[in-house]
Design a protein that fits this description.
Length: 123
């Protein structure tokens, strides 16, 4: 916990208490699939996104990997485009992640697999 930086401890305590009061059924998990809140590199090593781990680790299926890579090839140019307006880019990113989430559903990504991956990468 010493490496965690908390900007506002009081605000964090309020949020934790709200989560406890509302219960687990109101808790939502935020996954950083696109590195908006995590690093792309650590020292000299590339750090995979959550979806990158699923693809590169061959955890689901070759068909999943193929479809996920196809989505990446299709939508990544939009994500880094300097020509698209913010609105156009946002629409494309929403479309990409909607299709990616459906891909997870279609290929039966489940809690047990996520738990296995977390345990592997947490050690």
């Amino acid at each position: 916990m010493k490496d965690i930086i908390i900007r506002n401890e009081q605000e964090l305590k309020i949020k934790i208490n709200n989560i406890k009061q509302e219960g687990i059924n109101c808790l939502h998990l935020v996954a950083d699939f696109d590195r908006t809140i995590t690093k792309a590199h650590h020292i000299d090593n590339k750090v995979f996104t959550s979806s990158g781990i699923l693809i590169e680790g061959n955890y689901i299926s070759e068909e999943f990997n193929k479809e996920a890579r196809n989505l990446f090839s299709t939508y990544r140019p939009n994500e880094i485009s300097k020509e698209l307006s913010l609105k156009e880019k946002s629409l494309k990113m929403h479309e990409w992640w909607t299709k990616t989430l459906q891909l997870f559903i279609d290929h039966k990504l489940n809690k047990n697999l996520l738990k296995e991956i977390i345990e592997k990468y947490s050690s």
